[in-house]
Each structure stands twice: as C-alpha cells, then as structure tokens.
Design a protein that fits this description.
The chain is of the alpha+beta class. 32% of the residues lie in helices and 21% in strands. It has a single domain, classed as NADH Oxidase, CATH 3.40.109. Strand 5 and strand 6 form a beta hairpin. The termini are far apart.
C-alpha cells in the first residue's frame, strides 16, 4: 500500500473511533425521525415507470442448503431473466416488510433504520424491459427508466473491461445517500453505509442462488465515471458497490430438485 493511502486510512479509523465516556449517553436513541433527510428518492423525468407489484414467490427453498451451496458464478447465458425474477431480487434486497409509523422496515437491516442505499440497474437482458439505466423507487415499488440505451458496453468500460458485466442480464449499482445516515450518526456514518451495502449484497446472493441464478459482486469500478454516469455528485451521493446477475447453466437446481 502506498504510504499516503495508509496514512489516510489510519486517520479515518482514528477519527471515527470512540472511547468509553467521551459520548453523551443515549444521544442516538433521541434522534428525531420527523426531522431526518428524505428516506426515499424519486425521479420526475423518466422515460418509463414500470410498476412491479408484489412478486410471485416460488416454493420455499431450504435456507441451510442455499447457504451451503452459495457460490459466485459468472458464466452467464444469453437467456433473459424474467421480470418476476428481477422483482424477487429487488424485494429480497430492498422490499418494505413493515410500517413502524416514523419509519419502515425492509428485508435487509440498516443502521438506525435509515436506509441510505439506493439501487440502480443497468438492464441488459430482462423480459419486458427495454435496455437501459433504471432506478428502483422503493416507496412506490416501481422502476424508473433514466436512460434508454445498451448498457452492456458501458458497464464493461466502467469496470475496466470485466467480461462478466457485459454478459450479465442485470448489473446492480448500489449508491449511498450519506446524509440519511450522517444526520444521526455523524462521522460514524461513513462506516455504516458500507455495512448497509454489505447486507444488501448478501441478500442478493442468497435470493439469486435460491432462484438458481448466477451472481457475483463487483468491487472494482471507476467511481468517478460511474457517479458521473448516474448523475450523482460522488460526495453526498456516491456509488458504493456493484453486482452482476444472470442465467446460468443448470440453474434452478434448488427449486427443480425432487425428494430423494
């Protein structure tokens, strides 16, 4: 590691570390949810709004078997994903499961139930959807079409020519709206948003593997260029993680298995 990078990393860890007795007790529990930054992001100018509705849930699979057989798989087929498969992936990572009044709970945990993570989709091959860049409107549970274009080559370029992104049916790009978490947790927010993105990514792996889809997380992408492509500032709203999903040979091995 370059010495300057090491210095910056060490200073970040030190600046965001706590010691016993230096914080006012109970300060976080007194957070006023009514004054928090907006929890949901919606776009006004879109080329399409795709209502997703409640997904059609397949027969349950064995959680322990999914965990035991979870793998990152990249050999995607040209076969398209269905819209319901995409809906299941989205619900498993961002679906609202309960309304607590001041805030809503989702299928993934979030520090303080603040949910800073947004989901953008670079759609390459999904039945019923035009190729393009989409954003998930969690509150209204619909897809917002932002750019109508072939995103496969764009994903390939922005990940420094990782073939898996060009072959994927969908490339997930997760972003963080930092103020949602920073308003409550201050400097600690920059730790929490990475944890939140990890929860979301892990749920994607579990749901995709349970559906017999291939999925792999992408940690190497050109941040500045991706932020520019998404139209976000890269500071208060920045890209934090990617993942590629697609059909694979021998898919649906869990749901298609017969009792022995």
């Amino acid at each position: 590691m370059h010495p300057e990078w090491q210095r910056i990393a060490n200073e970040f860890i030190e600046a965001t570390s706590y010691r016993v007795g230096e914080l006012e007790k109970g300060w976080a529990s007194r957070y006023d949810f009514s004054k928090r930054p907006a929890t949901y992001l919606q776009y006004e100018e879109v080329f399409a709004r795709i209502e997703l509705g409640k997904p059609q849930f397949p027969a349950s699979v064995d959680l322990w078997e999914v965990l035991a057989n979870r793998r990152s798989k990249r050999n995607f087929l040209k076969q398209p994903m269905t819209l319901n498969e995409l809906n299941l992936l989205l619900w498993g990572t961002q679906g609202i499961t309960d309304d607590m009044g001041d805030y809503q709970l989702r299928t993934t945990p979030s520090a303080g139930a603040l949910y800073p993570i947004e989901t953008y989709l670079m759609i390459n091959n999904v039945e019923g959807l035009e190729k393009g860049l989409y954003h998930l409107d969690v509150q209204n549970w619909c897809l917002e079409g932002l750019k109508r274009e072939d995103t496969s080559e764009i994903a390939y370029m922005l990940t420094e020519e990782q073939e898996v992104t060009r072959r994927a049916a969908v490339n997930f790009v997760w972003t963080a709206m930092v103020d949602r978490t920073k308003d409550k947790y201050k400097e600690r927010a920059y730790r929490y948003i990475w944890w939140d993105s990890g929860h979301v990514a892990q749920n994607l792996h579990l749901v995709a593997n349970g559906l017999g889809l291939g999925v792999t997380t992408i940690g190497h992408w050109m941040d500045h260029d991706m932020n520019e492509y998404l139209g976000i500032d890269g500071t208060s709203h920045l890209s934090v993680l990617m993942a590629s999903v697609g059909k694979i040979a021998g898919g649906h091995w869990l749901t298609d298995r017969r009792p022995e």
